[in-house]
Fold this sequence. Notes:
With 326 residues, this protein is an alpha/beta fold. The protein has helices at residues 25-42, 67-78, 99-108, 123-128, 146-160, 178-189, 218-221, 246-253, 257-260, 283-286, 294-313; strands at 56-61, 82-87, 113-118, 134-140, 167-171, 193-197, 213-215, 227-230, 268-270. The strands form two sheets. The chain has a five-stranded parallel β-sheet. α2 packs across α11. The longest helix is centred in the C-terminal third of the chain and has 20 residues, at 294-313.
Amino acid sequence: xxxxxxxxxxxxxxxxxxxxxxxxxxxxxxxxxxxxxxxxxxxxxxxxxxxxxxxxxxxxxxxxxxxxxxxxxxxxxxxxxxxxxxxxxxxxxxxxxxxxxxxxxxxxxxxxxxxxxxxxxxxxxxxxxxxxxxxxxxxxxxxxxxxxxxxxxxxxxxxxxxxxxxxxxxxxxxxxxxxxxxxxxxxxxxxxxxxxxxxxxxxxxxxxxxxxxxxxxxxxxxxxxxxxxxxxxxxxxxxxxxxxxxxxxxxxxxxxxxxxxxxxxxxxxxxxxxxxxxxxxxxxxxxxxxxxxxxxxxxxxxxxxxxxxxxxxxxxxxxxxxxxxx
Length: 326
């Protein structure tokens, strides 16, 4: 199916994908269903399609990223888009150009899709207001990382068959994690039960208002859960002493088999990466082929990002408006 075959009712009736907040259960289900098809396509010898043929995708990463940037690049190329990666470290942004100036410059290039990662919460939303194309949030500050939550949801759904009724424990550095926030929002929308487990120093004030159960003890929090989602300890975002030491942190909050034994016997182990082995998770647990789905999450990431790009492109005009670029 090409983007020109769009139904009168859009598959995904949004111009941008800035966050999970504001999406409906139907929106999320549509993206996951579309991504399911791309998982199958990506396992074929010929992985390329043409739904984005003629479209231009710009990846604009203000923060370093290996997994997310390469995943979006691969997703765009497999859909047939012309993909350009902007190196912020050597761009005009480093010379003092503002985010608004950058948006104006990019807009003059007539891209169709811009993928943005930025260190400040709200920066991607601001940029989306200044361009005429669709914008995808690849992570902004401690705010949201929507495609990570979607790929986590796809991983769970493909393994467990559903999201509704699942008990998911999100463990670790909740305070600095945009992944945690997006996952909490998505899982609640889809009818899962969400727990967060962390030391008090790594919990945002008022986290209960997001509809989660809060635990400060791994043994209590992991009891009978279906999914254990570990988070990276984001030392680069910490200004001050949030944990006594990484050794102490692992002792109480790192995932090992001793702590895992209170979860359900078939509980899945997840981590958005990159992992700090021996800090958030024991290597034996991370590499457990029967329970760890960490590598599957990487595979699902490409499929979900293909689905997101495809869904947004279906809403783009197929003709330039009068006077565009004049």
